[in-house]
Amino acid sequence: MSEEEKNKNNPLHGIKLQDILEALVKHYGWKKLGQRIDIRCFLFDPTVNSSLKFLRKTPWARTKVEELYLEMVSKK
């Protein structure tokens, strides 16, 4: 099975985590994003870089962010 076949049903394939985070921040803002996903790096002195570092090391948090992104995109 080729790599393309493996990823054809993955809606996040080819989308960078940074792009996902920036889209969420643009849509919700840091405060509302922190209310939707209770992660300290979204609530206290948030930056894209610090949030990316945390999300890359924390699979459960990354999953929540990706799920919220998919929910946001499906509503558009």
UniProtKB/TrEMBL annotation:
GO terms for molecular function: DNA binding. It comes from the Bacteria. It holds the Pfam family VF530. This is Uncharacterized protein. It comes from Sulfurimonas gotlandica (strain DSM 19862 / JCM 16533 / GD1). The lineage of its organism: Bacteria, Pseudomonadati, Campylobacterota, Epsilonproteobacteria, Campylobacterales.
